[in-house]
Structures are given as structure tokens and as C-alpha cells.
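Hi support team,

I submitted a single chain yesterday and got back a structure, but I'm not sure I'm reading the C-alpha cell output correctly. Could someone confirm the output below corresponds to the sequence I sent? I've pasted both exactly as they appear in my results page.

Thanks,
R.
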Amino acid sequence: MAEKQKNWIEKNPVLAGFIGFFLLLILILIFSGGNKDSTSIQPNKNTGSSVSESSAIELMEIAFIGGYSQGEIKTLIDATMRLYSLPITEENYQRLGSVLVTLRKETGVSEMNILTCMKAMDYKNTIGGDITPEKAVTDSAAICAATLA
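Hi R., thanks for writing in. Yes, this is the structure output for that exact sequence:
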């Protein structure tokens, strides 16, 4: 009986892993770039509000898996943003939330697990140099998602 031929990924698992990781980083950069001139969304406490009027933390509460409250999400995300010297703004909440949801959809690792890993990892202070807070956050999120997957 003939031996089953291995596909390219089975023959080169390390190279395939690196290619997958870099594709993930490219997706993160695409989704985290956005428009620099966007205006902040004001929180809306009305129960009948539209999604566009909701704050980023409110949207994260809906999008994140695990049933976490806004307070739990805000506590962890604020601590992580402070660790990476990323200004705590509505725009940065939106960007980081989008990155986390995208990574969860790609890897299956929950957003809060990625944030917990990022906080423990302290990527920006570990590598040093002139890395921007935005790049440090997206790189760290990608590394954590890939590691935990």
C-alpha cells in the first residue's frame, strides 16, 4: 500500500507557523490602523441606543466571550494600557477591542485571556528600544494569542 503523501504544511510546520504568525500580525496592523482623525464616541446609557452611540467598553462587554462585566473589562484593559504607556482614550479602547476580538476569532483564545497574558508579559519593557505603545500592544496581543492557541 502506498504511503500517504504529506502536504506542504506537514512537511514544514515551523515555516508554516511563522507564515501564519506574520499573516496574523498583518491582520492586526490592518485592523488597528484606522483613521487617526476619528472622533470619540460618547457613552450612551439609554437602553434603546444604537451600536454607533455605545461606548467601546459597552461594545466589548457584548463582543467578548465569557460574560464579563464592563467593570471587569475596564479594570483589566486600563491596567494593560497603562503598562504599555498607551493613552486611555475611547479611540484606543476601540482599536484594542477590535484587535482582541479579531484575534479571538482567528485563534479561539478569549479576549480576557489575551489581556491577562499581555499584562503578565510586559512586552514593551521586555524588549526596550523605541517601539511605540500602539505597536507594543498589537505585537503583544498577537504573541499572546498565538502562544495560548
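A quick pointer for reading it: The radius of gyration is 18 Å. Let us know if anything else looks off.

Best,
Support desk
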